[in-house]
Design brief:
Elements: H1 3-13, E1 16-17, H2 18-27, H3 37-50, E2 53-60, E3 63-71, H4 73-83, H5 95-102, H6 112-136, H7 145-178
Amino acid sequence: MALEHAILVSLLEQPGSGYELARRFDRSIGRFWTATHQQIYRVLRRMEADGWVAGQEIAQDGRPDKKVWSGTAAGRRALVDWLHEPVEPETVRHELAVKIRAAAFDDPSALVPEVERHRAEHAALLERYLVGERRDFPDPAALDDQQRLQHVVLRGGIEYERMILAWLDDVLATLHRLGTPPPTPSTPGT
């Protein structure tokens, strides 16, 4: 997926300034696609040149003018074309998992603080997702189709974080059980 597609989805859902779009990425779209503010502005300019988005200057009292972006018909067609392309399953690169396997060659308990740090970060992210769910989807029965799709993506993020937390709890229990370093292999002839 290109950043362009994530931006198109956001702008077709609701037009906004580059700043507002960056905040959406920080708050919701960032759950599944991250981008810096600079990347967003750079891609918006490229998308405007391609005719996928249009910007309208809005005057503001006492502040610089802002540009409000919206998706165009050409942008919507590009998004629909992309929707019909097959998506390959993602390959996961998980450095912590490699470190956990490597703990067999050292004191496994030495990895506990790192796993606990990861666990705390995932627990905080899960809490942010749950707060966002309560704030943005207080009455699931009253959602329109667009909101239902947004909510199902958020629920996927919630379940992913719950799965990661359960796995990290399992890792911590395993590391605590192992707790002692393996013996140092002896060198032949010593």
